[in-house]
Queue: 2 jobs
Job 1
Amino acid sequence: MNSLQNLKEEALLCKKCKLHTTRNQVVFGEGNPNAQLMFIGEGPGRQEDLSGRPFIGKAGELLTRLIERAMGFSREDVYIANITKCRPTVDLKFEKDRAPDKEEVEACSPYLLNQIEIIQPKVIVTLGNPSTRFILNTNEGITSMRGKWSKYKEIPVMPTYHPSYILRNGGDSSNAQKQMWSDMLQVLEKLGKNPKVNIKWK
Ligand code: SF4
């Protein structure tokens, strides 16, 4: 049993924060334990909470298109995880998703940091404000951070928009999506990989 599996088994039983009281499933993260590329979001949404898998709702579909049709990886090639492993919802009533609060991030983030330590990706992509701020220890917003390389320890980090932001701001062919794609072109260049398609990937 590898240490990623041990960590997952620990997370599946975790009650370290209040989110355990409303979760259906713990969403540990999934993908290649030796992935070169790791995507990090903020927390599971409704579909993810029900299935136990990260990024499988509408935003996940967009991310998967980006990874598979445009970048030319399969989801199994990369690793996808969130800061919190249980779904944060408004008032814990399962009505609406929200970003994890400080207490939840403090309780859950050791799982993510251990995942990074074990996987040792060559590049990390942070998706949206919460994961970018957490990984890069900054208060800067994603609009000013995206598209610029930073580092977590010695690992290059490319912040970009969360796919749900793309969906809220025009979706396919929107300016936000083009900006996200230009960020991913930088990631591919860093990994020495050619894109599968250019600009549009619908
Ligand atoms: S969100 Fe993280 S810390 Fe909180 S109960 Fe779930 S696994 Fe544990």
Note: The chain has a mean pLDDT of 93.
Job 2
Amino acid sequence: MDLRQLFADARRKFEEGGLVLDVEEDKLVIVGDLHGDKETLDLVLKRWDGGRFLFLGDYVDRGNKGLEVLTTVVKLYLEGKAYVLRGNHESPLMNEDGGFMDELCLYKRIPNCGELYGDIERMFAVMPVAARINGAVLAVHGGIPLKEPSMEPASIAELAKPSGDLVLPEDPLIYQALWNDPCDCEAHAPSPRGPGIWLYGRGPTERFLKEEGLKAIVRGHLYVSAGYVSHHGVVHTVFTSRAGPYKAVRPKVAVLDGGVLQIYDLLSNEAIRRVEI
Ligand SMILES: [Mn+2]
């Protein structure tokens, strides 16, 4: 299939779906950052063959099969088999130095790679940034955005109605949803990732979940060699890439099955943690 057509079709479908999804699924396999790791993606798709998937973003950069990963998840999305969220690497801000533009133009030598990237960039801009699953779990790449200057958590409704351009993105709440991380702190702290990015602590996390009537957050973004870490018992980070710099990672996915969230180790094929939601 023509790639430009594929990404244009996906862009139109993403546009119709909005920036925040409401998802109802009995069983959902939630996949963390892939960063061009097609082998691990194939492992997940084989292990849960015929299942429903939610991808937490960061399909490209770092690993060398970003285009294959992106194409695969977008096809699953168009076939109605997967929800596909945006990560901070779904942005021209990252792809110039992160490896994806070089993959397209230098290594794969795709003719008119700039035009293909233009289609991809337009699609990135309209991808959803969060999904509410079964009214209980929020899936998001980075996490809870904080409103300056009060530093209180933003609501999901505010995320759904952004102001400013979405390409980079410029909207500060959307930007933080893609970039923020949890911390073991009580309130919040500036993020080492850069200006405009925050670490959200126990207080804002608990207030956010209470306000939204949710139980937990499943997110990616943070590289952890164990492939999984939890904060305050309610923020669950899964990391699913072994590409490039992540060779030593033990990749994990989260499987939401009824009222239970299970964390699976992909190498041993075992559930390493079980959380009642
Ligand atoms: Mn990320």
Note: The first helix runs from residue 3 to 17.
